[in-house]
Amino acid sequence: MAEKIRYWQALNRALDELLAADENVFILGEDVGLYGGSYRVTEGLYAKYGEWRVRDTPISEDSFTGLGVGAALMGLRPVVEIMTINFALLALDAIINLAAKVPFMAGGRLPMGLTIRTPGGVARQLAAQHSQRLEHTLMNVPGLRIVVPSTPQDAYWQLKQAVLSDEPVVVLEHELLYFHEGPLDPAAPPPPPHRAIVRRRGRDLTLVAYSKMALLAQEAAERLGEQGIEAEVVDLRSLSPIDWNTCAASVARTHRLLVVEEDCRFAGAGAEIAAGLTERCFTRLEAAPMRLAGLDIPTPYNGTLEARTIPQVDDIVAAARKLVKEGS
Amino acid sequence: MDRDRALALLHDMLLGRKFEERCAREYMNGNIAGFLHLYPGEEAVAVGVIHACEASDYIVSTYREHVHALVRGVPAGEVMAELFGKRTGCSRGMGGSMHLFDPERRFMGGYAIVGETYPVAIGLAYGIAMRNLPEAVICFFGDGAVNQGTFHESLNMAALWKLPVLFVCENNQYAIGTEVHRHSAVPEVYKRAAAYRIPTERVDGMDVLAVHKATEHALRQIRAGTGPWLLECLTYRFRGHSMADPGHYRPPVEVKAHQRIDPLELALRELSPIYPTPEQIAAAGPDAILKLRQYCSDQGHLPDEDFRQLEAQVDAEVEAAVRFALESPEPSLEDAWQALLANRRGETLL
């Protein structure tokens, strides 16, 4: 039975169940223990499982992420929380040079059951150093898998799947999603971890989005529906690998593609999504694919300006209307 | 030290020396490519430390790690085959000289980004401590690696949580071409351990018996649950940093102090891939192999005749390793994909 639950609570429940089920699972990161996690995700777990299973670390992102790599090499399943993706920049050696490459360089002879959880994106006036996205960088690294859950149900499913995988998985969360509420049915069978989901059916255009933008795209689609435009919304759920088949099947039906992302436009995730779908659907497209993305500018502190640097529901509606008009 | 142990050390030091000499030749022959960092001069460290370990201990090493792998028991053929990029290499031809792995022997890799060995080592040690096992982790690093942030981050965590790690500094006094006094405000590495209240010892890294003894002592403490140790081994590499480096930045007087040989011969050697003869090395004071040979001889463990026999045996081992590498097949692109996807284990992604 589904219950209403917040996104952080869904993650918390997944971690609790993982820790209870497998003693190889442990959590580490800044303030994940006694403090309960910056976004409450690890609340209560320290008291329940003790300091060796839920470890508060010093502020040493590269080394505690690398610690996760070392532990994964001996078959453990560390869940590293990096407080925000902005701090993950300090851990890129551990993520890219170690987690993604060591099993390969060892000829496939070592496991890497490492999960890295980290929130990113534009929150509320945190300024340029705390508002970044890093998906474009991580997507370009062979050997890493990246999931981007947008709902509590997906957060629960995809975190569990990530921790149980023997490959390194980055779970990109979003600071504004933690207190978002949605249904969770823990007993429901999960789809594969990287399968995209069609959240709304429509015949006029396809909106491809992920994470928080998937929610905005659904809101925009409802508004477009009131205006007589039926948008199909594909929530990617994963950025590596990308479920091309689900996306391409949708575009083949609607003949129009609008990619919505919060990431900066230039060389962002949307560039890969648009290019990949253009290659697959070129003859089915009735208009050039369109990207709606963050502006190529560091995020300003000023709230009004901040909002103008990333797509809003109004922007998605306007872009969709423009795209539908083109070529018709 | 008993005869068998002493002779085992000598065997591994000779193997390390001759294996590396042969690598230099095979590099010139075009059989080995990429970056190749050789170990001659530093053998006493790998041999002394690893011989004091248990088979259940983990070894994490740097990119100058061929000899560490050999001493750990990775077959010489598999190491040479890896350097040749062959499918039979210990990393299946995917890693090369700087990335030797052998999980079965708990040889957890060569790492080519300076300062990476610390976090990997404390991760393994964390797992050991979490499970309350009597094992330990050996973490090798050079003097050049102590100025990376990970050194301080990882030593702090190791000390904070009393992790079973032995940090072993192979202080060969150069970060590639920058001498230790030019790269470190505190050039004595062991002193830095004090900042994290990690017990430490500085040993003559050219003396394999001293290294072995210090390692045994440190590991006893570590296994007693007192937390990490740091061992600084003062050593010297006889060659440049890599095959691409003739090592001209080192003053001849310094090299002479370590090798006590004719500067003309030194110059000739720097220009030639041929390694000095045993006679030339015999003229050098601090060479660790000769020191140990002398020790074995003084103890009556090893008559000259037996030493020549040992040398011949090691020569044959190296020759066999090269033959194995030469005759081994190349890996296919399919093997590369297999190496990447091995951990997927039938998981359905989409």
Describe the structure.
Chain A has about 325 residues and is of the alpha/beta class. Chain A folds into two domains: about 180 residues, Thiamin diphosphate (ThDP)-binding fold, Pyr/PP domains (Rossmann fold, 3-Layer(aba) Sandwich); about 130 residues, Rossmann fold (3-Layer(aba) Sandwich). Chain A is about 40% helix and about 20% strand. In chain A, the strands form three sheets. A seven-stranded mixed beta sheet of chain A has the order 3-2-4-5-7-6-12, sandwiched between helices. In chain A, strands 9-11-10-13-14 form a five-stranded mixed beta sheet, with helices on both faces. In chain A, strands 1-8 form a two-stranded antiparallel ribbon. Chain A is globular and about 60 Å long. Chain A starts with a strand and ends with a helix. Chain B has about 350 residues and is α/β, with parallel strands linked by helices. The radius of gyration of chain B is 20 Å and the shape is globular. In chain B, the strands form two sheets. In chain B, strands 2-1-3-4-8-7 form a six-stranded parallel beta sheet, sandwiched between helices. A two-stranded antiparallel ribbon of chain B has the order 5-6. Chain B starts with a helix and ends in a 9-residue tail after the last helix. Chain B is built from 15 helices and eight strands. In chain B, helix 1 packs antiparallel against helix 3, helix 1 crosses helix 14 and helix 2 packs parallel to helix 9. In chain B, a hairpin with a 2-residue loop joins strand 5 and strand 6.
